[in-house]
Amino acid sequence: MNYKRFLFAILILLIIISGIYFIGRENPNNSVSSPEPSNNSEVTKSEGSEFLMDTLVRVRIHDENSEQVLDEVLNKLSYLEDIFSKTIEDSDINKINLNAGVKPVKVNEETYKLLEETNKFAKITDGVFDPTIGPLVSLWGIGTEDEQLPSEKKIKETIERVEYKKIEFQENNKIFLAEKDMSIDLGAIAKGYAADYVISYLNEKDVDSAFINMGGNVSVHRDKVDGSLWNIGIQDPVRNRGNIIAAVEGEDISVVTSGNYERFFIEDGVRYHHIINPETGYPARKGIISSTVISNNSSYADALSTSFYILGVEKSFEIAQEMEDVNIVLLTKDDKAYVSEELKGQITFTVDDLEIIYR
Ligand code: ADP
Ligand code: MG
Q1: Burial class (CB in 10 A: 0-12, 13-18, 19+), 349
Q2: For the segment 120-159, what is each residue's pLDDT rounded down to a tens digit?
Q3: What is the pTM for the complete model shown?
Q4: Which of 93, 226, 338, 345 is the most exposed place for a label (fewest CB within 10 A)?
Q5: Rounded to an integer, what distance in angstroms lies between the CA atom of residue 11 and that of residue 99?
Q6: pLDDT grade for 26, boundaries at 50, 70 and 90
């Protein structure tokens, strides 16, 4: 009898182990799949989430191969995080930073391309967007245990180490950061670049429809499976997380918001947040509390939403109006929303205590 019991116990154990194994296989990244009611009975929906690039990334794929596509998308995002992160030890960016003023570093093609792209935004914004913001970001340490209000002297010294023109682009994907103690930080653009990277894969694979949310950077691929447009919310920077102030309708668009409501500390009644003006060395103070950019291109949306936050209303509209496919919603401290004229009919405000100014 003991023998029988033993066999029975082993059998139960095997069933449990194989159960765990299969559940594990089906949920590689907290993902779930389900069939989808649509014209095309083959289309399924797969959803997954993962903590990547310092934020919770959520992906929803609608396609006949939704599961494989989801897996591949999460793999791609994780690859980009591995090369762009400044905290992962052997990332391209960390290698460049460690070798600043020492020697050029050979990087992956994506890193080289993204750095070239940052150059473009630095030029458009007259250096307000600066990928070599690293030393200032570290000095302030916003969102880390070491956050502090630095001395004026320290800030002045640190500004000297921020200068995008000192990124040297060399042959064979080599990057050289010309001076010691400089460092690159791609926090203002990496998520946008990653979203574009994924979208181009979805296009290549002719995927039916997809929704990607990287902590408030939202990109949608095509329209929804039922043929209607996506509705993308713009977060309320004042009230609690989760509330929205407006919804933007569209397909194949990216909506990216920069704000001071997530990473900040308050000292003597002043709110110090994580978007830093490289000219002053201080967090931006142009009266904007949230800056949203809507564009087909998520890198543009990401880099420019951060830049516009620093630049203020006038300069931002000047830049946006010169560009094709860059529309903006800027909320100011005094409860005004400055909105690109082109968004009329595409945006619906869901709160009534804002003065809305189209221009
Ligand atoms: P989030 O990533 O919080 O959504 P942003 O896209 O606006 O917000 O990026 C903010 C991040 O960009 C900061 O945490 C920092 O890493 C980096 N950053 C801050 N100031 C600048 C700047 N002037 N130019 C480029 N990058 C910046
Ligand atoms: Mg940004």
Answers
A1: middle
A2: 999 999 999 999 999 999 999 999 999 999 999 999 999 9
A3: 0.90
A4: 345
A5: 57
A6: very low
Cβ contacts of 221 within 8 Å, gap of 6 or more: 199, 202, 203, 207, 209, 210, 211, 212, 252
CB-based contacts of 230, cutoff 8 Å, min separation 6: 211, 220, 223, 224, 249, 250, 251, 253
- Ligand 1: which of 115, 120, 165, 185 to mutate, most ligand atoms within 8 Å of CB? 185
259 within ligand 1 shell (Cβ under 6 A): no
Residue 212 token pair: 């990607």
* pLDDT tens column, 35-49: 765 555 588 999 999
70 SS3 class? helix
- Minimum-distance ligand to the CA of 133? 1
Residue 359 CA, distance from chain mean position: 27
Atom of ligand 1 nearest to the CA of 185: 16
Which pLDDT tens digit goes with each residue over 280-314? 999 998 899 999 999 999 999 999 999 999 999 99
Q: What is the CA radius of gyration of the chain?
A: 23
Distance CA 84, CA 97 (A): 11
* CA dihedral over 106, 109, 111, 112, signed as positive or negative: positive
DSSP 178-220: -STT-----TTTHHHHHHHHHHHHHHHTT-SEEEEEETTEEEE
Distance in angstroms (rounded) separating the CA atoms of residues 186 and 57 = 17
Task: pLDDT band for 242, please (50, 70, 90 cuts).
Answer: confident
**Domains annotated on the chain, with CATH:** 92-177 (1.10.3980.10)
Q: Which ligand is nearest to the CA of 214?
A: 1
CA gap 74, 169 in Å, rounded: 29
Which of 282-286, 336-340, 355-359 is predicted with the least confidence, judged by mean pLDDT?
282-286
